[in-house]
Predict the structure.
Amino acid sequence: MKLLKIELLKLKANYTLHGFFVVYLIMVPLAFVAIGNFDINSLLNPLTGGADVGVDAKDIFKFPHNWEVLPYLASWFNIILSVGVIHFVSAEFSAGMYKKTFIDGLSRDELYFGKAITILGFSIFCTVFLLLLIAGFGIGYFEVSEADEFFNMKPLLLYFFQTLCYFSFALCLITLVRKSTTAILIFIGFYFLEWVVSIPMEKSLEIFLPFEAFSEIVPIPFIDQLTEGVGESESMEFKSNTYLAPYVSGAYLLILQGATYLLLKVRSL
Amino acid sequence: MEVNILTVKGLSKQYSTVKALTDISFALKSGESLGLLGKNGSGKTTLLNIISGIKKSSSGGFQWSNSPENQLNNENVGILLEAPAFYPTLNAVDNLKITCLIKKASYSDIEGILKEVDLYERRKTDFQNYSLGMKQRLGIASALIGNPKLLILDEPTNGLDPEGISLIRELIIKKKKQGASIILASHILDEVEKTCSKLLVLNSGVIAYEGETKQLLSSENQLELKSEDLKALKLALKEISIVSNIEDKGTYLLVTIPDGVTGTEISKLLIKKDIILSEIHTSKKSLEEELLKLLK
């Protein structure tokens, strides 16, 4: 409780972080509305090879499709929020606050747990926001006869897990390098480096790269319909990557959290 | 029997090729105040960082009476090291709320402490908009949260104006009178002399002096002697064994005599040598002079 209160006090006045969240809160629903005004089939054409996913544009606002589409769409904004996490933690390093709170009496374990509950809080916040959006759109576009399934929490829970993975990567990185600009450059650079490294790689191996694994946690909407339009082997790769992603990401999550803990435990503040 | 609240034994710190501290040993009893003196880079801040548990020593160690070896249980301890660190976009009250939460102190302490350090009127101003002196005073306020029994202060009057220096000095003396132990590192010797009963002088990471402040200052006294014939006076003084360091200041001679020897005794000895003094002034050696001598 003490750690939560301390983190909330710090969050209260971190206006830059507020800015990152405001962008997220505005962009996600805007992007969702924008997609709903396009022909979803033609948007997915590059993936489906022209196959019809059988969903009309406005249908993505309805249950059960919005359970799948919104978390997937929101997952594209994880990078922005991760940069926000980097900024938030780096502000403490640059102000000398880790050292200050340590000499005031916080243990190194508490320093770690303070940050761990912060990123957990961010993930919960984003997930609850999406839940409200899903409920809002779902109720607004509710049609009794068409909705066979109202609840499909799985993509949302996977989204929660995905944000935790991205934020853990950001937390570990900033704890390691301590400088905001350096950490942000490494974060974005790593993203592109991974993309370059993955070009000659087999699809089945790509999933073992951290960002690739994280990005595959939330399944692509209409995956079953999509894979109908591609070859059997590609379909298998799609499905096996989606299946493996949470496990690979889980392993990375443990490694990143462990490394963050060790960095705070062992290094000079 | 007074108990040691801090015992430091054979503490050394090596930074790659630089030896910052070498075999430092001393003890501090409950209620004592220790002044830490030395030139820039003499190892004062390194020593404070180590005994505060922030940095690790290369060898040797320390023991606080209420803590495991080489650790400091920060309960009832107020620490201000180097520049005060606070959240720039939080105001004084919110920053101190964080300190209160960490030290398990009541938020109700904040108002009184801000008044003590003369920041109450600016309590709602963000830390980033504070002057250097105000930042320093907030650092002191943070160290005082929870009514600590031990204060560790590194240059607490850094950046303060004379009024601020006096205010902080009074606060330190007040805490001392309330029974708090204090470790104070400062370049302002007057501040240390007025607040610390014990001194630890570091020179290039080695102890140059450790002991009572008054002992250092009273081990030798100085006399200013005037006579019609300064040459004759000088010759006569050279024959008196207890007089040392005879300096010709042009119109008078400045000499050093051991503690306990009075000017009258010297005058009597000179009369026996047919020298009559026209003026005699006794002056205590200043801490500055003693320190400069130690650090030579």
Q: What stands out?
A: The two ends of chain A are 24 Å apart (CA to CA).
